[in-house]
């Protein structure tokens, strides 16, 4: 008899497995894939280069609690991610900053001057409801079309005017020369990779792991008291309200017989090419190798569900599933897929730590 059956071995499931196992609970964690670590899974390719199977995962957080918790299972390599955008034949910093504007427009503006420059370009929107509204309100139509419109269309197969404001609100506009993609207090990569971190997280004697296993095949065979479900919520309920749409990515890896391929960790292609970006892994990992591996990302409607699509009609469908989930007192739904939210890794960890505290405080936790 297991105390908890946890479906999914990504951050959401692994954090809960570790926390509950330390409390003396017997845990069975199952995953359809043949590896742990979910989408954060990394491994060494045939050339000995550490790559992320499901695209670049760059850790950053403002939560000291989250960072301190994960530090139990890994040492860190300090890393601040930088992104360039291929725009008008130039490679300029993304998010848009002072350098971006000066290089694009051949100017030498100061921070104060660029604030006025952007204000002169902005098209004020009220209320701000869509991703298009966010960008036009901040930087105007010209920069919107150079940086956001094409990239968003490729990524989501929707015009920014059809997407919730939260999508482009994730990417700020800066009036200084800060060219870091993230500004969080804690920015680092697991020194030996994500998979090694997950191995340590899941090494407790109270945790059993079954890979290449669909929980539906074992749910009536293996006894357990409570389920924690981190898969797609619509799948759990057999799509009774219809399928929730997701965007997926087709990853194409390429290795070159040279030390460096591009100028920085990631280069975005907002208007050119079918792929959205190219990432070179050695920037992320700090690895030394005479060869280098890159990954192209081609967004697609088919494949593994990576990104919940933030639109009102999708949220309405999710809310129906959420209401149904609240009737299942012995099942907890958590993580990006089970809550249909576009969470970063640190947000998933924080969500799981909060759910652990909730479970610990509930009477169901007492045998």
Describe the structure.
The protein has 367 residues and is an alpha/beta fold. Helices cover 33% and strands 21% of the residues. Strands 8-7-13-14-15-12-16 form a seven-stranded mixed β-sheet. Helix 1 (11-22) runs parallel beside helix 12 and helix 4 (111-121) crosses helix 5 (131-156). The mean pLDDT is 95. InterPro entries: UDP-GALP_mutase (IPR004379), UDP-GalPyranose_mutase_C (IPR015899).
Give the secondary structure arrangement, pairings included:
Blueprint: E1 2-7, H1 11-22, E2 27-30, E3 42-44, E4 50-52, E5 60-61, H2 64-70, E6 76-78, E7 83-87, E8 90-94, H3 98-105, H4 111-121, H5 131-156, H6 166-169, E9 186-190, H7 194-201, E10 207-210, H8 215-218, E11 224-229, H9 233-236, E12 246-256, E13 266-268, E14 277-280, H10 281-285, E15 292-300, E16 307-308, H11 312-325, E17 331-333, H12 345-361
Parallel strand pairs: 1-2, 1-11, 2-10, 7-13, 11-17
Antiparallel strand pairs: 3-4, 5-9, 6-9, 7-8, 12-15, 12-16, 13-14, 14-15
Helix pairs in contact: 1-12, 4-5
């Amino acid at each position: 008899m297991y105390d908890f059956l946890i479906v999914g071995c990504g951050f959401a499931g692994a954090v809960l497995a570790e926390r509950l196992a330390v409390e003396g609970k017997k845990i069975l964690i199952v995953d359809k894939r043949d590896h742990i670590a979910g989408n954060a899974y990394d491994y060494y390719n045939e050339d000995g280069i550490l790559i992320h199977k499901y695209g670049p995962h760059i850790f950053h957080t403002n939560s000291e609690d989250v960072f301190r918790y994960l530090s139990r299972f890994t040492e860190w390599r300090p890393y601040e991610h930088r992104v360039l955008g291929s725009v008008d034949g130039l490679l300029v910093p993304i998010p848009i900053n002072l350098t971006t504007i000066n290089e694009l427009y051949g100017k030498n503006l100061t921070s104060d001057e660029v604030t006025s420059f952007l204000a002169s370009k902005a098209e004020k929107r009220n209320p701000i409801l869509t991703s298009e509204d966010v960008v036009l309100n901040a930087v105007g139509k010209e920069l919107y079309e150079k940086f956001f419109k094409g990239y968003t269309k490729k990524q989501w197969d929707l015009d920014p005017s059809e997407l919730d404001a939260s999508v482009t609100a994730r990417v700020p506009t800066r009036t200084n020369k800060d060219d870091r993609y993230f500004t969080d207090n804690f920015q680092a990569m697991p020194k030996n990779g994500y998979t090694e971190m997950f191995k340590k997280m899941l090494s407790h004697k109270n945790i059993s792991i079954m890979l290449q296993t669909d929980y539906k095949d074992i749910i009536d065979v293996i006894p357990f008291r409570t389920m924690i479900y981190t898969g797609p919520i619509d799948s759990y309920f057999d799509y009774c309200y219809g399928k929730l749409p997701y965007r997926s990515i087709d990853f194409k890896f390429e290795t070159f017989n040279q030390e460096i391929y591009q100028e920085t960790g990631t280069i975005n292609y907002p208007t050119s090419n079918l792929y959205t970006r190219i990432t070179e892994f050695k920037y992320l990992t700090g690895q030394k190798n005479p060869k280098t591996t890159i990954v192209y990302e081609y967004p697609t409607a088919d494949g593994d569900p990576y990104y919940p699509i933030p639109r009102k009609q999708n949220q309405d469908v999710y809310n129906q599933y959420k209401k149904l989930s609240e009737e299942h007192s012995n099942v907890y739904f958590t993580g990006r897929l089970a809550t249909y939210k576009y969470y970063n890794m640190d947000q998933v960890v924080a969500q799981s730590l909060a759910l652990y505290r909730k479970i610990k405080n509930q009477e169901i936790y007492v045998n």
